[in-house]
């Protein structure tokens, strides 16, 4: 009988942008740029703090049609213009990590690793994410929400497309 290895709860999204990778990286690294495109489509983003550096934090509020939520990025490793590693969490308005505002048991922390590569003026962004210090139930929830998270990110990526086209003229 073969040993069964459980699949780790993870998310992987690969998306291409018609822009140099330095510009895609800068869209994450610049407060003004990030404020223009980050978040689910139709949400209003308010940056409460923005400190894009290793050890830095970005704290923000999203208003999705009256549903308010706060979130935090804690940057772990940044290699300009190739990769960004950070922990993301939902928070209260003061920036303290809290459970998800949604009616399910979502992990308190998610490790995110974004890598960028460029060929012929097209940048490939790969996002890899996985729960950190999560319970079995939280990992199961994360895995079950893959399709929903992919859909949410697609709206965010469309906003990034629009931003990149605008800044490239």
UniProtKB/TrEMBL annotation:
InterPro entries: ASHA1/2-like_C, START-like_dom_sf. Residues 18-164 form the Activator of Hsp90 ATPase homologue 1/2-like C-terminal domain. It holds the Pfam family AHSA1. SUPFAM superfamilies: Bet v1-like. Belongs to the AHA1 family. This is Activator of HSP90 ATPase. It comes from Dyadobacter endophyticus.
């Amino acid at each position: 009988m073969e040993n069964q290895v459980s699949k780790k709860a993870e998310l992987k999204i690969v998306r291409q942008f018609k822009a140099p990778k330095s510009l895609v990286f800068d869209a994450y690294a610049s407060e003004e740029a990030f404020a223009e495109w980050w978040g689910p489509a139709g949400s209003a983003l308010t940056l409460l703090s923005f400190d894009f550096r290793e050890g830095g934090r970005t704290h923000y509020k999203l208003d999705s049609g009256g549903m308010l939520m706060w979130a935090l990025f804690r940057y772990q490793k940044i290699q300009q213009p190739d990769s960004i590693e950070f922990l993301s969490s939902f928070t209260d308005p003061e920036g303290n990590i809290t459970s998800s505002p949604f009616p399910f048991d979502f992990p308190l922390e998610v490790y995110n690793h974004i890598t960028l590569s460029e060929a012929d003026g097209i940048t490939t962004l790969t996002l890899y994410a996985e729960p950190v210090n999560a319970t079995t139930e939280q990992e199961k929830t994360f895995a079950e929400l893959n399709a929903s998270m992919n859909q949410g990110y697609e709206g965010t990526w469309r906003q990034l497309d629009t931003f990149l086209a605008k800044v490239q003229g």
